[in-house]
Amino acid sequence: VKDMVEFVDQNGVTDFEHVADEDGILWQEFDVSSQPAFVFISADGTSETKIGGLGYDGLAERVEAFNS
């Protein structure tokens, strides 16, 4: 976890939650097969998993589309 915290701080990616899934339970639950990966979870509990990088604009578009 220490290495992950250092990575987040050093790379300035502190604007969203990062999860240390040390047992792999969340990876399995949300079908995450590699990093980077994003899981978008709506207020009603539905989710969408995106494997791969998105960049700032791609992330903003996904969040907006998923919450509309």
Which structural class fits the helix and strand makeup?
alpha+beta
The helical percent reads 25-40%
- Beta-strand portion reads 5-15%
Unreliable spans are none
Strand order of the largest sheet: 1-2
Number of strands: 2
- The string of secondary-structure elements, in order, is HHEEH
Write the layout of secondary structure elements.
Layout: H1 2-11, H2 25-29, E1 37-41, E2 47-51, H3 55-66
Antiparallel strand pairs: 1-2
Description of the molecule:
By secondary structure, the chain is of the alpha+beta class. It has helices at 2-11, 25-29, 55-66; strands at 37-41, 47-51. Strands 1-2 form a two-stranded antiparallel sheet. The longest helix is centred in the C-terminal third of the chain and has 12 residues, at 55-66. The radius of gyration is 13 Å and the shape is globular. The N and C termini lie far apart (34 Å).
